[in-house]
Amino acid sequence: MPSIADLIVSRLHDAGVGFLFGIPGGGSNLDLLDAAGRAGLPFVLTATETAGAIAALAQAEISGRPGACLTTLGPGVASVVNGVACAWLDRAPLLVFTDSHPASARRSVEHQQLDHAALLAPVTKWSGTLSAENADAVLREAIDRASTYPRGPVHIECPADVTTMDWRDRGVSTEAGVSPSDAVEGGRALLDPAALVPLLSRARKPLLLIGLGARRPLDAAAIRDFCASHGVPAMVTYKAKGVVPDHDPRFAGVFTNGALEQPMIAEADLLIGVGLDPVELIPRPWTHAPPIVHVGPWAVADRHVPFAAQLVADIPSGMQWVGELLARAAWDLDAVRRAVVAQRQRLCPKTERLAAHRVVQVAADAAAGKARVTVDAGAHMFPATMLWPVSEPNGMLISNGLSTIGFALPAAIGAALAGREGAPGAIHEHDDPVVALTGDGGLLMCAAELLTAVRERLRVITIVFSDASLSLIEIKQQQRAHAPSGVALGDVAWCALAESFGVAAHFAGTEAELERALAQALDHRGPSLVEARIDPATYPDTLRAVRG
Predict the structure, then answer these.
(1) Which structural domains are found in the chain, ordered by start?
(2) Does pTM top 0.90 for this prediction?
């Protein structure tokens, strides 16, 4: 007779989950790991619970199917919150399995006793507790909730005395769980799509603003066809990089609600947000003059972005509907291309020393055609997102809604494993590399995940922008006329640290050294680290160009 743990693994397989990540404890986690091992579902031990959630999140974004992680009770659940919050604000389907005290003892013990559902409620779509009677119903409901737009994380509590129980199909239970946050995304009810008609029919220079809700392959194909047939340029958010490739003549740059894109926005007479979720945008007032409408698979909030109308539909159907109402646009696409080139030039101040934008450009020249890239929060993020070319959706992974530091390396681990089959740790000669771009502050928060990459023998190339400071915070202190305080990290011997984990390490203080280091890293079959010792002096000019 299969156990409840066997049922969990079976449902994960059915949902397309490829790996289980996290740090196990001593209760139901052990039953789940045993069942996963017997069923061939690989488990990847990470150094922190947050990293496990982020690695699973990365796989979810790449595959479109749920990712899964597990934690022990109490401190494990408290530790995973940052990764779950990242999935919540980046709309990623994530299944979070937490251990708990046996159901029979839950009311009588205090040790490590936390209300896991309450702790995770603000950052999950739904929470349910397994029992012998409701296990299948809870699992089906959890997977359905995680996968329903807007996608997001769900929580499944696994009492220690339940996962070993025999499972019998007992039918659908009415006690599947509780729903702490079932409200539909959006500040008001969906407007009549008919309100879109006059706006679209009058538009002569519409501009697409493509967001995280439009990243499926079918979405990208529909958007590219629409742009080509109507001569409409498109901007992309950080998470939508690659939906319209950087090399496409209709690519109009990156949209953040910042300053760099303002001239292009001002030239449009209608903005069409395609899968655009306001969670992605810089939290500053919306000052753009053209009216904006939304087309996407779920209704989004209009408190920040004043959408005049919304059409809730799958992206291919929505783009077809919009295309039937729009005439061919009057844009000069050669001028659009020149504007994009000018945007990039503004991000590349002249300097005699190795600067962040040159690290990005040199690394992209070496690896962009063969490697997915993950980007951490920090000052290096601005040249990375603007200058690294991406040709397919999810070719760049970044924490945008939460913008959490410490994202790039765990996400790279999840991405590197995404295409694998079979047991983790095996050698895969066909593995494509993944490049993680991170500051030294971000890498300090997750440096132990270098050991995870070694253990799994992953082709992860971690490029650390080394300047011994929390540079973005230091710039913000300067903007407030404050003296630098609390941002100096101190020097880290990154190469020595990496080598202590078994990571191939390289130091680069010049462009020539960087080129050699990258060539060696790309030839290496395991994880590598490149410490790029940069001059942070160009960061203020870059930030000013992007955000004003």
Answers:
(1) 4-159 (3.40.50.970), 193-342 (3.40.50.1220), 350-547 (3.40.50.970)
(2) yes
